[in-house]
Design goal:
2 copies of one chain form a homodimer. Chain A has helices at 8-12, 38-50, 142-145, 183-189, 196-201, 220-226, and strands at residues 16-18, 21-25, 58-66, 74-84, 88-96, 102-111, 147-153, 169-175, 207-216, 230-236, 240-241, 244-252, 258-268. By secondary structure, chain A is an alpha+beta fold. In chain A, strands 1, 2, 3, 4, 5, 6, 7, 8, 9, 10, 11, 12 and 13 form a 13-stranded antiparallel β-sheet that branches. Chain A is globular, with a radius of gyration of 18 Å. The N and C termini of chain A lie far apart (42 Å).
């Protein structure tokens, strides 16, 4: 099932290095309405860190602040190891295009994770099996076509306004062309939930993620052992107020293991 | 009720400016076990931005990465406006001591919030009134003494191990000496929940917040209209695994308005 040639996602998030400055390029395959899919941008930034010769440990936390629109084309990633100790690293990444102002500002923490008391506090939300869940119809945005979304709950049906706004959704998320889940695809998938405001209002409105934070609850060994190509995602909002709304989400393995949690704050016009 | 002389919290989070470099000093009043209370550090960083002559709008998002221990004494805050547009600003702040490595790295977003469709999606958790809830006994850490914690649910009783680990807690949080809630105290209170691992394990273990993210769902006008000196906090964890655990929390006004949401990832040894 898995592709042998480079996966579109890997093409889209490719980076090349020269010292502290890395280069990347936006991808038409992962294009959103007015710029690159934010999840692809976040994953590209994380890739520059994962591939960095000074990197040790696995991604633990990533925050990406989307400061300005990103134009189609090349970009630079200024990558800086801010602090390192025995078991963790703190990074800062600035994305620029053509020497202009910073378009994206990110911080990341990597950690070498040691065995400890372990407890899965949150319950697995459960779902109808992937194979028995209807794929979401392909829609216009190129990046959406790169995923196989299968809604278990809260599928957005435009024009069908519910009695009370409901921003919860639960869905299977897989790369359209199957690709083994790693920290990079988890990063992108943590931004792959449709905007909560679309769910709550049941309409498309101007929207943009302002800041995204994702925590990883598995290391590379854990993910290798899972050996999966899809996750069960659940997301909700807590509030929409004065042009901003939040989102909190969970990404689960099909076996019921919490892989990542994510939160974001986003602008909307409605 | 409100103090007229400077509140200890304002002393503890005081900053003075000189261009892009601000100075602060750790506070013995808000000291934790091996360093300053992380919430005071976060609030101090936010204060440098709120007080900055170039600042416009209100805090929307703050992420603080605790990179290294902070020693008792003075520190510098290197404050940088990374990007500004019509209605929002992106900031980056680096805290150092005596020219050493970065001890704390933070990013923040400020926004001028405009009227919009508004919807409080998450339900107010409710609680017994503050006056009818027992104060939590004073404990050793100085910073804890600066707060009036009153547990409605999940009060940690050391040694009393529940049948299954439970990391949920709901409690009133007020400054011990009443102080009107603003974005600064919300920031500190977003880190004032006791470590989830203490709740889950019902014991104190080595613990440290690695990264904290807080979103503000009210602007200064909203907070001024609330005119409150305490919040209802609710917090839980989703997972403890390989020495790291998460926390997600909500801070509500007594009238049932969601003021801020927060999440953090923390190291523990257990």
């Amino acid at each position: 099932m898995l592709t042998k040639t480079p996966h579109l996602f890997d093409d889209a998030t490719k980076v090349t290095a020269s010292d502290s400055r890395w280069q990347g390029h936006t991808s038409q395959d992962y294009w959103a309405f007015v710029g690159p899919f934010g999840g692809a941008t976040a994953a590209t930034i994380l890739r520059a860190l994962v591939d960095h010769p000074q990197r040790s440990g696995d991604p633990l936390a990533l925050t990406v602040n989307y400061c300005a629109p990103i134009a189609e084309g090349a970009f630079d990633l200024d990558v800086r190891l801010v602090k390192a100790n025995r078991s963790s690293q703190h990074w800062c990444v600035e994305m620029t295009q053509g020497g202009d102002d910073i378009a994206t500002l990110a911080t990341a923490v990597f950690a070498e994770r040691r065995p400890s008391w372990s407890h899965p506090q949150a319950p697995y939300p459960g779902a109808t099996p992937f194979e028995k869940t209807q794929p979401y119809p392909k829609i216009a945005a190129p990046w959406v076509k790169q995923y196989d979304f299968r809604f278990v709950e809260g599928e957005p049906v435009p024009g069908k306004t519910p009695a009370a706004p409901n921003s919860y959704s639960k869905l299977w998320i897989a790369d359209r062309v199957p690709r083994k889940i790693d920290a990079l695809s988890l990063t992108a998938m943590s931004d792959a939930f449709f905007a909560r405001i679309f769910h709550a209002k049941r309409e498309l409105v101007p929207f943009g993620t302002v800041s995204l934070t994702t925590y990883f609850h598995v290391d590379a060994d854990d993910l290798a052992a899972e050996d999966i190509t899809r996750v069960l995602g659940a997301a909700d909002a807590k509030i929409f107020h004065k042009s901003y709304g939040d989102q909190n989400g969970e990404l689960w393995s099909p076996g019921g293991r919490l892989l990542a949690t994510t939160t974001q704050i986003a602008y909307f016009k409605a």
